[in-house]
């Protein structure tokens, strides 16, 4: 079946603009994760959704970052008033249940000029 | 903070040689997972080892887990140029009582296999 998809694959924006990144998880996966990865760095956890439970937002770096997920389907990560330090690859992953193997999308490379 | 710490940070070997990467962690875990990342994009799951397991094999991959030392190793035998990638370990330290069900990721080992 189809894997995790993300769009856009690349996004170039100007400082101060808002951006919205989309993730389509694997159908039936209840858990969905967003990560940020700066160039040459490891994964930085941002937010985690599990079914209808309240999301774990503990990794969001500032109130400019927010994410939503409708049920067990698509999720959007929104970054308001982008800054240059937001430039990174944003990765989405889903898993059947929490703690299971995570399946990653190809990521969105965000460049803030 | 990152719980998993891989070492070495970078490893360069010749094709055909074995590559060993290590991962250390701090708290008790339910399982430990290894992932590979090519070209800075999506990660691919390689192998999961549970806390009650000591060793697992998958093709040319061998993973060991020593819970007393809180460490794991990933061995790639007979390496190929296509194995060139970054390798990450991730630990599941969540509890049933808590809501903290996310994996904790290390910073990765960058492996270069030279033809």
Summarize the model shown:
The complex is a heterodimer of chains A (113) and B (115). Chain A is mostly beta strands and 113 residues long. Chain A has no helices and ten strands.
Secondary structure tally, helices of chain A: 0
Task: Indicate the multimeric state.
Answer: heterodimer
Regions of chain A with pLDDT < 50 over 5+ consecutive residues? Answer: none
Overall mean pLDDT of chain A stands at 92
Largest sheet of chain B: 6 strands, mixed
Polypeptide structure, described:
The complex is a heterodimer of chains A (113) and B (115). Chain A is built from no helices and 10 strands. Chain A has strands at 5-7, 10-13, 19-24, 31-37, 44-50, 65-69, 75-79, 88-95, 103-104, 108-112. Chain A is globular. By secondary structure, chain B is mostly beta strands. Chain B is built from no helices and 11 strands. In chain B, a hairpin with a 2-residue loop joins strand 6 and strand 7 (61-66). The model of chain B has no long low-confidence stretch (mean pLDDT 88). At the A-B interface, strand 4, strand 5, strand 8 and strand 9 of A face strand 4, strand 5, strand 9 and strand 10 of B.
Features:
heterodimer; A: 113 residues; mainly beta; 6-stranded mixed sheet; 4-stranded antiparallel sheet; globular; B: 115 residues; 5-stranded antiparallel sheet
């Amino acid at each position: 079946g189809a894997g995790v998809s993300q769009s856009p694959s690349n996004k170039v924006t100007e400082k101060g603009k808002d951006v919205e990144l989309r993730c389509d998880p694997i159908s039936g996966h209840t858990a969905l994760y967003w990560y940020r990865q700066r160039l040459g760095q490891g994964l930085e956890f941002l937010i985690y959704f599990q079914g209808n439970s309240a999301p774990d937002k503990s990794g969001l770096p500032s109130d400019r970052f927010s994410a939503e997920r409708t049920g067990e389907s698509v999720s959007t990560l929104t970054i308001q008033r982008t800054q240059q330090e937001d430039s990174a690859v944003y990765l989405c992953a889903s898993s059947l249940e929490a703690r299971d193997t995570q399946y990653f999308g190809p990521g969105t490379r965000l460049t803030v000029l | 903070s990152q719980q998993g710490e891989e070492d070495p940070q970078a490893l360069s070997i010749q094709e055909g040689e074995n590559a060993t990467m290590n991962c250390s962690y701090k708290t008790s875990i339910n399982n430990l997972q290894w992932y590979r990342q090519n070209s800075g994009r999506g990660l691919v799951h390689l192998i999961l080892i549970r806390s009650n397991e000591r060793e697992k094999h998958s093709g040319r991959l061998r993973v060991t887990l020593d819970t007393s030392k809180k460490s794991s190793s990933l061995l790639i035998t007979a390496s190929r140029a296509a194995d060139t990638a970054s390798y990450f370990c991730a630990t599941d330290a969540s509890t049933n009582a808590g809501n903290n069900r996310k994996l904790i990721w290390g910073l990765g080992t960058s492996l270069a296999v030279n033809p």
